[in-house]
Amino acid sequence: MDILKPTAVIGTNAWGGSLYGKAVRGSYVEDDIIIDAMRAAKEEDIPLYDLARDYGLGKAQRMIGEFGTKDIFISAKYTPFTHYKPGCVRKSLEKDLKDFKRDYVDIYWLHLPTDVEDHLNEIIDLYHEGKIRHIGVSNFTLDECKKSKKILDTAGIPLYGVQNHYSIICRDWEDNGLLEWCKENSILFWAWAVLEEGMLVDPRIKKRSPMKFTFNRKIKKLKGLYKVMIKVAERHDIKVPQVAIAFCSTKGIVPMCGCRKPEQVTDLAEAVKVRLTPGEIRRLEEAADTANVNIMGADIFRAFVLKSKK
Ligand SMILES: NC(=O)c1ccc[n+]([C@@H]2O[C@H](COP(=O)([O-])OP(=O)(O)OC[C@H]3O[C@@H](n4cnc5c(N)ncnc54)[C@H](OP(=O)(O)O)[C@@H]3O)[C@@H](O)[C@H]2O)c1
Hints:
It is built from 13 helices and eight strands. It is an alpha/beta fold. It has one domain (9-304): NADP-dependent oxidoreductase domain (TIM Barrel, Alpha-Beta Barrel), CATH 3.20.20.100. Helix 10 (223-236) runs antiparallel to helix 13. It starts with 8 loop residues before the first strand and ends in a 19-residue tail after the last helix. The chain binds NADP nicotinamide-adenine-dinucleotide phosphate. NADP nicotinamide-adenine-dinucleotide phosphate binds at residues 11-14, 25, 50, 138-139, 163, 192-198, 201, 241, 256-260, 264, 267. Residues 11-14, 25, 50, 138-139, 163, 192-198, 201, 241, 256-260, 264, 267 line the site of NADP nicotinamide-adenine-dinucleotide phosphate.
């Protein structure tokens, strides 16, 4: 796998312990199954894992350190829940590296646009020290991305990517020009929650989960979209969630999927090889727009962004 041209990313948000798994996903997956999923990722040539300190209450990072082999790729993040303090990023990355049992991460994202310049400058220092191979930003607006690119340009470092929420039913970044800007500037766009945390999977396969309970009202509104997804899936002989993944990859977006099981990894790897037709994309978008489900795509983490002190 070429880290500059990744086809898919494995999300690790749900690699938690028993209580965490049940609370967040409605079920717990044994470590052995996750280890099998990691094996499948290697076989499918998508050994790229997206992490953050709090995923699975820290368990995801520790599992990568314990079971990840040297040839996997690690995407990690600094989450600025408070204002910038000198050394804060370094301290957090050092803890990450200890978890990962290695001396660098492949991609490091500034998780929220708080004190962007200060945080990015510290990330740039860590890049120069070889602890970070590529730098990205996550949950940033177009203006914030432009500002970040300028800071990195000045340091002679390319902005690797933008990691934001995107799916068939959450296309704000397309409407407000961020996706186009990424393309024009050869910046990757990684989409998180392309399956909308389980909402864009096959509605005929019933699963009990607190998430699904929360989404119940929205799921009712999505009936029309599910119909189109099922038709597209049948035409390509793929599964319904694979349509949501292929929707992204057809548009040149890198899909990130929460995979805890080997079959989910295989689904992801197969789906990114499928190309939907312009007509299928249009029908999926029309059905999504008709459903008009409010997902808070662009704004979901705005509440956590702190106002600049300067
Ligand atoms: N940068 C950010 O701020 C940010 C925010 C959120 C997430 N992320 C990243 O994005 C990743 C993906 O998001 P997510 O995990 O929250 O949600 P997601 O990938 O949209 O959805 C995960 C759900 O989809 C199900 N699923 C996965 N593969 C499937 C398949 N092949 N067939 C049927 N169902 C399937 C899972 O089922 P099971 O429950 O059975 O496993 C789970 O319920 C995260 O893990 C994280 O790495 C980043």
